Amino acid sequence: MTILLRLPVVLLVLARGGILGHLVRTGILPGWLAGFFRSLDSVFSWGRRDRPGIALARALSRLGPGFIKFGQALSTRADLIGAETAADLATLQDRLPPFSPALARQLISKELDQPLESVFATFEDTPVAAASIAQVHFATLTDGREVAVKILRPGIRRRVEKDIRFFRAMAGFVELIAPATRRLRLVHAVDQFAYISDIELDLRLEGAAAGKLADNHHKDDGIHVPWIEWKLTTEHMLVMERIEGTRIDDREALKAAGHDIDTITRTAARCFFVQVFRDGYFHADMHPGNIFIRDDGALVPIDFGIMGDLSLPDRLFLARLLNAMLDRDYSQVASLHAEAGMISPAVSREGFAQAVRAVTEPVMDKPMGDVSLGTVLGQIFGLARRFDISVQPQFTLLQKTMVMAEGVGRQLNPDANMWPLARDLAEDWARSQQSLSSQLNEIADKALLLGLRLPDLLDKAEKALDRLAASPPEHSSIHPSPRPGLPWGWLGIIAGIVILFHIL
Fold first, then answer.
1. Is 465 left (phi over 0), alpha (psi -120 to 50) or beta?
2. Taking the CB of residue 143, how many other CB atoms lie within 10 A of it?
3. Residues with catalytic annotation?
4. How far apart are CA 315 and CA 81, in angstroms?
């Protein structure tokens, strides 16, 4: 019943933004529903014709926190909504008025189960950030350390879960009455959003993500991940190191502070590619407000609510794909997708390669410094609907992150071209992995040959020992030692080979 009561309000907001008119023009709605939406559009949109992504971002902002977060999640699905709409949704601002300082103090004391003053020597009532899920206050611990305190909005889990129930019901209803929309896998998209939201609503998981990223970067010069104060961190509150620094997109302030822009650019590119290729664990929300440069020049990421994972096969695929795209080798792009099982054998590789060329050439035809590989990747994923490509969520999340990284790079250093550096890093990494793979294969071959020869070698060794035992040296005062435990030695060698093959 609640869902039915919300539906007219949501339809009205979408109609006023011109969204319903855009849906009609997609051609995926049945005739009766398209006619209904067309009527609503003509009455309420007043001829507004913004781009679909811009119109949708504006409408979602009006509908509240859950809708804002859903729009941000959709911005990672270029394979569903197209690269342009995904890029527009990526700009969706996640800001809300802060809740009162008195309520913030009350919530923090409840989480601490003690008065706020017993833990914090100072606490700043004015939040430094207020988003749909949480807000952040600066404070000082009683031991003098400066921290940032992130506290969830009261009742936010209940509100987001309510929105998710609405999204799931609407996705199922739309797929039922408009079968052509099933290829968009709307219910699956809602399920993915529910999973991401559940992680963001448990701040202990964000703390764990920060800890893992810190472990990965602990030997990397020029990159620092804030520490987490675990004894004060709960499901609803995160306490971490306060970062003093300059936003990475504030070029003039960075120069005034004496930073070298080229050095920061190289550090940022290295940070991104180390996370993606070496570690396979990357910060997936790297907009400029989440990256700071400390006074000592170290790059510091913050806000670890959205992270991405890439397996070793994923990383190898991506390294080869980026190189193929930079070489404009579209046949290789198609082959890589086929080898990865992302397109079925029934799909023509030549046809897919031609489609890739058609959507990426307009981007790749620009000067190299203006080329956005994130956009190119999004264009390729946008072909998913036509060619029934199975695009894994980790790739769409990475694509969004690439677009963000490129935007940061251009704001920071418009004259720099990060992709030659990126290509060198990716090629070096892929080459090292292939070399390691060759070495492991060689070890496996030698182990196999040894395993085949072991029975013969052990038989000869046993006969030699029998001869020695039967003919001890004359006048020797040394008593023959018991025969070595060959069965145990044999089992030990076999166990070593089994373990080796298991590792390989």
1. alpha
2. 6
3. 285
4. 25
